[in-house]
Write a structure and sequence with these properties.
By secondary structure, the chain is an alpha+beta fold. Among the domains are: 37 residues; 74 residues, OB fold (Dihydrolipoamide Acetyltransferase, E2P) (Beta Barrel), CATH 2.40.50.140. Strands 1-2-3-5-4 form a five-stranded mixed β-barrel. The N and C termini lie far apart (111 Å).
Length: 181
């Protein structure tokens, strides 16, 4: 008893599900590689995650995301408020009488000493950005009073905050830290 096994290369054409005879394939089609864009589209289709197609559906999605954002921001505010309450009241100093208090002191490099009894000081600052955490560098120009015309261009100086001395001068030269070479 010899059992007959179906031979795919036999003369009879294979039958489909509908019962009709299909023509035999002469040669397999060459596989064409997909472009990166086609691969991305195919992967998105396999995941089954489709974007809303109608404007109404997109509007609904936007509203849902807005509600979620509002909820998250409210939670963050509550969390910050709880942290502040846990830390206790802020340490405040009583209001100072006129003429008291600490004056700001800045260190910088003299960029100009052309005006009589006045120097221009560049104060460089570098700080970390709160959100992006990148170092952000900036500089400020201050006009300072130099009574003895002591500082020269390139000197490193320390200036102290003072009363308004002119339209732009609000600082006084405290001392020259390093002379320019």
């Amino acid at each position: 008893m010899a059992e007959e096994t179906p031979n795919p290369g036999a003369d009879a054409a294979p039958t489909g599900t509908s019962g009709e005879a299909q023509p035999a394939a002469a040669a397999p089609e060459p596989v064409v590689p997909l472009t990166p864009k086609e691969r991305k589209v195919a992967a998105r289709a396999r995941r089954g995650k489709r974007r809303a197609s109608t404007p109404e559906e997109r509007a609904e999605e936007r509203k849902a995301k807005a509600v979620a954002r509002s909820r998250r921001r409210l939670q963050e505010r509550e969390k910050a408020r709880a942290a502040r309450a846990e830390a206790g009241p802020a340490k405040t100093t009583p209001p100072a009488e006129k003429g008291t208090g600490t004056q700001k002191i800045r260190q910088g490099i003299v960029t100009s000493d052309k005006a009589d009894k006045t120097i221009t000081v560049r104060v460089d600052t570098a700080r970390r950005h709160r959100k992006y955490e990148k170092i952000v560098r900036s500089s400020t120009k201050l006009h300072a009073h130099d009574e003895a015309n002591d500082a020269g261009v390139g000197d490193t100086v320390r200036v102290v905050e003072s009363r308004p001395l002119s339209a732009t001068k609000r600082w006084r030269l405290l001392d020259v830290l390093e002379r320019a070479k």
